[in-house]
Amino acid sequence: MNASPSATLLYNCSAATLDLSVDASYGLIPNAALLVQGERLAWVGPQSELPEALAQQASLRHDARGALVTPGLIDCHTHLVHAGDRAAEFEMRLQGASYTEIAKAGGGIVSTVRATRAASAQELTRQSLKRLDALLAEGVTTVEIKSGYGLALDAERKCLKVARFLGGSRPVDIQNTFLGAHALPPEFAGRADDYITEVLRMLESLHADGLVDAVDAFCETIGFSTAQTRRVFEAARALNLPVKLHAEQLSDSGGAALAAEFGALSCDHLEWLSESGAQAMRRAGTVAVLLPGAYYFLRETKLPPVDSLRQNGVPIALSTDCNPGSSPCTSLLLMLNMACTLFRLTPAEALAGVTRHAASALGLHDRGVLAAGKRADFVLWDVAHPAELCYRIGANPRIATVFKGNRLDV
Ligand code: NIG
Ligand code: FE
Predict the structure, then answer these.
(1) Is the CB of 294 under 6 A from ligand 1?
(2) Fewer Cβ neighbours under 10 Å: the N or C end of the chain?
(3) Considering the entire predicted model, what is its pTM?
(4) Is the CB of residue 257 below 6 angstroms from any atom belonging to ligand 1?
(5) Is 279 exposed, middle or buried (0-12, 13-18, 19+ CB in 10 A)?
(6) Is the beta carbon of 323 within 6 A of some atom in ligand 1?
């Protein structure tokens, strides 16, 4: 409870701490104060309970004028680094072609692979920064970015380096995930097992370059089988890298159970998740990342089994899935609204999904809640109640973001 003289006090706010020791909902403290020391929170609680000695150590005092404070938002599943768009496929889908049909006809992910391979690192950076800036404008302070539109060593390296560069260019933490097993590149047509061998080679090399924080795969009829996914996970395990999985998006392929076997941080999409898959996730402590943007944009009708996740006590996170094919979305606030309207999450569940549980989905335990000792990543909002963050459509009530204790006007 010692604060150095350089501590900053934020007072006259309400705080949705998402801290379970406050309450199991928003962790709401109506008349709150936060003390920031360096990159960390030194104290969070009711303003009236702030110890006088700590209050006096704050050399800077900031009146939040009644703003709501939440943890910095965390977008835990994106494919943000890519080139081009798939607006033409959007038109085709509206005329009746399905996502799967387009993928099988050589479009889909592979068409973005062509554009991404052709783009220079500079051009990729330019296009990707626009998307990142849109996320930051809504209070995002941590973003996961997957590779998976290179599908060859040099192109995957280019994308992961761009992702690292983005992290150095903006006040945000970027977590890199290697998704070499995203789709079969044309040069490996009919040779999926050989491509997985190449994925393992890429993983080793990219890991040696320090470019990989986690490993993901697309386990699906139009992606890779559980046997192929297992090979990728075994290689990740050998390198001590955590795994995640695009699982049960279009069919029940048994990916969630496989991922749970490897102690996956998260399984993502999950519309077709079975009861036994949910139980396996519960046992492994795997987070369910739901992606309402992809569900909406692909005009899916099968809802993820939210009740089963709740009953099994599987933590639910939410993300934009920002990508050109299934979710060309750069608004995490819109995902809050869609998760409530489409998936019937409560606003408190939705907010936990982009803070506390999103942090767990990335294996980051130093953020996602407002509590002493956690990182001073937080957002001031011009709203009276946290449910308003989920309720509005297309509004952005962000006043300011604080990233690692620094006040920003991003
Ligand atoms: O999360 N499902 C696989 N990957 C992405 C979509 C990628 C694409 O269509 O470009 C997803 O939905
Ligand atoms: Fe995805």
Answers:
(1) yes
(2) N
(3) 0.97
(4) no
(5) middle
(6) yes
